[in-house]
């Protein structure tokens, strides 16, 4: 006779779920609802008068050249951060999986950056690339390279891309390494008989970790859009000349500094829709190439 597990207490499952439901309600659903509500309102900077303007805030935002330019910056930034962090993590995971000498220490060191706060990570990169006090920044100027990310927009964008990517490499490395470790050794040994290391990786190992790669692709795109505010704020503050002002940073600038609550809320709604659409596209087209 097949035995079934029975939970006689009907209330306990709901009590166990209650903390997670409370967190979701307080920190996601309620702020998201407030953003949608504020996006159809026009409020003076002091919060004394409010009127309903429906979609006017969205029209103003989508016809603003500065907002469209931040869209371009975000596209470049998110693509570069996702590609760079995932590519570097995959390379490190492959090297760690080969059983090199000191692999345990190597793997431990690679996980450390994930525990570093974004503002601290930005400070570390500032001490490296600052044109006056940075070790590498001063060296670049000494050899004749006009390095000054505070004045050059392209250099500033490159710096925030490197810092944000470095912060995310550890997270990607853990998943890639776990995926490679889960591949049965017999599969790799059988493939070793008639293929070289490079072809063996791309033909055997990489397709087997495609679910991990797809998961990391979705997570990294969301990270680049939402979770890089701290790095940008600490390193460049969105400058110079808005060269590093991404969509999430413009929401902060317009809402907190310029006190345009309606426009900032409309930008938040648009940003949320963009990420939802990008995620849906990834599941619709890229997931077809994933082998579970």
Explain what you see:
There is one protein chain. The protein has 292 residues and is mostly helical. It has helices at residues 12-38, 56-62, 65-97, 103-111, 118-129, 135-142, 153-181, 185-191, 197-208, 210-226, 229-235, 247-257, 261-286, and strands at 41-43, 50-52. Strands 1-2 form a two-stranded antiparallel sheet. The longest helix is centred in the N-terminal third of the chain and has 33 residues, at 65-97. The protein is globular. It starts with 11 loop residues before the first helix and ends in a 6-residue tail after the last helix.
Defining key terms:
2 strands, 13 helices, mainly alpha, 292 residues, two-stranded antiparallel sheet
Report the total helices: 13
Show unreliable segments: none
User: Widest sheet: strand order?
Assistant: 1-2
Largest pleated sheet: 2 strands, antiparallel
Helix proportion of residues, in percent? over 70%
SSE order, one letter for each helix or strand: HEEHHHHHHHHHHHH
Mean pLDDT over the full residue set: 88
Measure the end-to-end span.
33 Å
What radius of gyration results from the CA coordinates? 23 Å
Give me the count of strands: 2
Strand residues, percent: under 5%
């Amino acid at each position: 006779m097949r035995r079934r597990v029975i939970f006689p207490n009907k209330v306990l499952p709901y009590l166990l779920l209650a903390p997670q439901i409370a967190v979701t309600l307080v920190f996601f659903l309620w702020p998201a609802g407030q953003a949608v509500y504020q996006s159809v309102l026009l409020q003076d900077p002091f919060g004394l008068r409010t009127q309903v303007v429906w979609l006017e805030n969205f029209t103003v935002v989508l016809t603003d050249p500065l907002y469209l330019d931040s869209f371009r910056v975000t596209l470049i930034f998110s693509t570069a951060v996702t590609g760079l962090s995932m590519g570097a993590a995959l390379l490190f995971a492959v090297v760690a999986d080969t059983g090199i000498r000191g692999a345990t220490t190597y793997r431990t060191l690679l996980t450390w950056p994930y525990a570093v706060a974004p503002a601290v990570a930005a400070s570390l990169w500032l001490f490296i690339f600052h044109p006056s006090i940075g070790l590498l920044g001063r060296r670049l100027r000494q050899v004749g390279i006009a390095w000054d990310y505070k004045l050059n927009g392209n250099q500033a964008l490159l710096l925030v891309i490197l810092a944000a990517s470095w912060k995310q490499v550890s997270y990607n490395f853990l998943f890639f390494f776990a995926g490679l470790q889960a591949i049965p050794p017999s599969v790799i040994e059988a493939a070793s008989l008639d293929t070289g290391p490079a072809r063996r990786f791309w033909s055997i190992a990489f397709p087997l970790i495609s679910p991990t790669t797809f998961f990391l692709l979705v997570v990294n795109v969301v990270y680049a859009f939402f979770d890089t505010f701290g790095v940008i704020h600490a390193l460049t503050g969105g400058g110079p000349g808005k060269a590093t002002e991404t969509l999430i940073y413009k929401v902060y600038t317009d809402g907190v500094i310029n006190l345009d609550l309606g426009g900032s809320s409309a930008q938040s709604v648009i940003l949320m829709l963009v990420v939802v659409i990008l995620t849906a596209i990834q599941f619709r087209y890229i997931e077809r190439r994933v082998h579970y």
